[in-house]
Amino acid sequence: MSEEKKQKPKRRFGDRRDARMVRDGKGLQTIMTHLMPNRTDCEVYLHELIDATELVRYLEKKNADRQEGEGKMTVFHCVIAGLARMVRERPLMNRFIQGRRMYERNEISLSFVVKRRFEDHADESLMVLIPKDTDTVNEISSKIRGDVREIRKSEHAEIGVDSIDGIMDGLAKLPRLLLMFIIWIIKVMDFWGVNPRFLTDGDPNYTTILCSNLGSIRCPSVYHHLNNYGTNSIMVTIGTLHKEEMLMPDGHKEVRDVVDIGATLDERIADGFYFARSLKLIKHIFANPELLEQPLEKPSGFDYQ
Q1: In sequence order, what DSSP letters do the residues of 249-301 get, joined into one string?
Q2: What is the DSSP letter of 212?
Q3: Is the distance from CB of 286 to CB of 54 less than 8 angstroms?
Q4: Which letter does DSSP use for residue 53 in this model?
């Protein structure tokens, strides 16, 4: 038996296949799950302009030695790695509420949409990334580049009946009344956490963080709602990297590279203080991008005071 299997916690009554039930939750959070059972009723939106000057310098050094045609590391790759590190260090961010119960996931997962071509009618595919504790930004960047390259090999999506895209396409062809009945059954199974793997694996609604890289289409970050279906509690939109004059700590103004990031969160999984500290960690990672070279399991050493 592998070490990973030995360390995996034993499943107890009330646990889900993908998460453990939180049994020591605060009374306020428990009551909130009943007073406001829908995730869309509990949205908190954060918007922050983050100084990315040090990150840009870091990427220039990382990409300087790469050969022509070799995939380069991007700001988006670093944001994904930074979010994964934040969740690893801030475990309450990996919680969700479904069926009026709170759960903590067994693993960290991030998802986003890959557009095959930057055209109005180009196909889109869903991508889910599950980083390992030993991963650094190098492994995460390589994984993203490799998967995106495979997705974009053909002009049109090659969708199998067993993929989440293929399942959705198949359901969409059913008569409306039959589809309504099937969706009702799926939502009931979703409430009790018994949806089969072929419906949840690869579905961004069942990931820790759903990301939208709007910077790739030169758009600013926007508010994006959460969904009641699934278990996703955090939606992050990443805007365009651009230059902007900022007020520095010593009082002088300086033109810096900045990126705007928006996040929509389910306020029931943690309090505002916890969210604010998690955002501070993201800023710290942007200011010290060398932290991304460390495995996710290694603490950042950030002073939250």
Answers
A1: TTS-EEEEEEEEEEEEEETTSS-HHHHHHHHHHHHHHHH-GGGGGS-TTS---
A2: E
A3: yes
A4: H
C-alpha dihedral sign at 271, 95, 145, 204: negative
Q: Tell me, what's the pLDDT at 216?
A: 82
At residue 147, what is the residue type?
Answer: D
pTM for the whole thing? 0.87
Phi, psi torsion values for 128, nearest 5 degrees: -120, 130
Element of type H or E holding 114: strand 110-115
pLDDT of 114 above 80: no
Q: State yes or no: pLDDT of 3 exceeds 70.
A: no
Token pair 């070279």: residue: 293
Return d(Cα 77, Cα 260) in angstroms, integer.
Answer: 15
Q: According to DSSP H, which parts of the chain are helical?
A: 3-7, 27-35, 53-64, 75-89, 137-151, 164-172, 176-192, 197-200, 272-287
Contacts of 222 (CB under 8 A, 6+ apart): 214, 237, 262
CA nearest 144: which of 119, 110, 93, 108? 110
CB 87 within 8 A of CB 96: no
CATH code of the domain occupying 36-157+201-208+273-300: 3.30.559.10
Tell me the C-alpha distance between 73 and 75, whole Å: 7
Residue 48 has pLDDT above 60, yes or no: yes
Q: Check: CB of residue 244 under 8 Å from CB of residue 255.
A: yes
Task: Please determine, for residue 93, whether its predicted confidence score (pLDDT) is greater than 80.
Answer: yes
Using the predicted structure, report yes or no on whether residue 15 has a pLDDT greater than 50. Answer: yes
Q: For residues 130 and 109, is the Cβ–Cβ distance under 8 A?
A: yes
Q: What's the pLDDT score for residue 113?
A: 78
Name the one residue in this structure whose structure tokens are 């908190």: 44
Q: How far apart are CA 193 and CA 53, in angstroms?
A: 43
Q: Which residues pair with 128 in a beta bridge?
A: 111
